[in-house]
Design a protein that fits this description.
About 55% of the residues lie in helices and about 15% in strands. The chain is globular and about 45 Å long. Strand 1 and strand 2 form a beta hairpin. The protein contains 7 helices and 3 strands; from the N terminus they run ββαβαααααα. By secondary structure, it is of the alpha+beta class. The protein folds into 2 domains: about 45 residues; about 100 residues, Up-down Bundle (Receptor-associated Protein), CATH 1.20.81.30. The longest helix is centred in the last third of the chain and has 17 residues. A 3-stranded antiparallel beta sheet has the order 2-1-3.
C-alpha cells in the first residue's frame, strides 16, 4: 500500500506532520479527518523511509509499554489507549506525535506491530514482541514483559 506524508492541525490549532499507509489518498484523508484533524496537505511518498534519525528514550518506551499494558489488560481497546497516551504530558512532544501516527495507521487498517514498524523509530525487539503478543492474544502480558525488559536496560 502507498505511504502518504501529511500535515494536519488539531482542534486546538496545533500542527502535526506524519505518515500514513492507506489504499488511496482519499482513504488517508478520511482516516485523518475521522481522527479529528484538518488536513493541510497530503502527498504520496514514493520510497519508504530509512531507519529512524532519532532514538527513543528508554523511559518513554518503558512508561508507554507499562501504561498501555495496564489499559489493554483492563479492557480498554488499543485505539483508545493510544489516544489517551498521545495526550500525556509526561512524554516528549516527538513521542506523542509518534503515538498519534501509530494510531492513525492502526485506524487505516494496519496491525499494531505494522504501525510501529511503519514509523521506523521503534527497535526490532519492541516490534517483534508486540507482533508475538498480537498473534498469541496476550498483548497486555507481552507489553508488561517489554516494560520489564526496558526497566532492566535502564538499570544496566
Amino acid at each position: 500500500m502507498p505511504h502518504y506524508a501529511y500535515t494536519v492541525t488539531d482542534m486546538s490549532g496545533g500542527k502535526s506532520n506524519g505518515t500514513v499507509v492507506s489504499s488511496s489518498e482519499a482513504a488517508a484523508v478520511n482516516s485523518l479527518i475521522n481522527n479529528g484533524y484538518v488536513v493541510l496537505s497530503i502527498k504520496e511518498i514514493r520510497e519508504k523511509k530509512s531507519k529512524a534519525i532519532f532514538t527513543l528514550k528508554i523511559m518513554d518506551l518503558l512508561t508507554f509499554s507499562r501504561q498501555l499494558a495496564i489499559m489493554v489488560d483492563s479492557g480498554v481497546n488499543l485505539a483508545t489507549g493510544l489516544e489517551v497516551l498521545s495526550q500525556q504530558e509526561m512524554f516528549t512532544q516527538r513521542f506523542r506525535n509518534l503515538i498519534r501516527n501509530v494510531l492513525v495507521n492502526i485506524e487505516s487498517g494496519m496491525s499494531f506491530s505494522e504501525a510501529l514498524n511503519n514509523e521506523k523509530a521503534f527497535d526490532e525487539i519492541f516490534i517483534n514482541m508486540v507482533e508475538a503478543g498480537e498473534s498469541s492474544g496476550t498483548l497486555a502480558e507481552t507489553l508488561e514483559k517489554v516494560a520489564d525488559f526496558y526497566e532492566s536496560q535502564k538499570k544496566t
